[in-house]
Design brief:
The protein is mainly alpha-helical. It contains 6 helices and no strands. Helix content is 55%, strand content 0%.
Length: 120
């Protein structure tokens, strides 16, 4: 019966490789609470729909993570969560006032385009 002999340095090298490989393969993944893909069909928003619903649905087009989405949602909730009809009837200054302080002007233009038909 033959025994296979391995040098102690070879064993250390393989065990070190396994220890080094583990941290490289594990990365922090951010958990998301809503899907990132756009809705499967186009949505026509009614005037009675809450603006929060439109905001959540359109945020999916921008692949916003939870932090960005909640930040934009906070601007909407500060003003008692108006409806889509209130947003449409507010006029340009009123719509800007709802999202005052937002850093995502591209998202604001997209949301205005989707809800009103014209970007601002």
């Amino acid at each position: 019966m033959l025994k296979r002999f391995t040098a102690p340095t070879a064993v250390k090298a393989t065990s070190c490789f396994a220890v080094i490989a583990v941290p490289q393969s594990t990365t922090a993944v951010r958990e998301l609470h809503f899907p990132l893909t756009p809705a499967p069909m186009p949505i026509t928003y009614l005037d009675s729909d809450p603006l929060e619903f439109a905001l959540r649905t359109e945020a999916r087009h921008f692949a916003m993570d939870d932090g960005m989405y909640v930040r934009e949602l906070a601007f909407c909730r500060i003003h008692d969560n108006p409806t889509v009809g209130d947003f449409r009837n507010a006029g340009p200054e009123g719509r800007r006032k709802i999202f005052h302080g937002s850093t995502r002007q591209d998202f604001f233009r997209w949301l205005t385009y989707k809800l009103c038909g014209t970007p601002e």
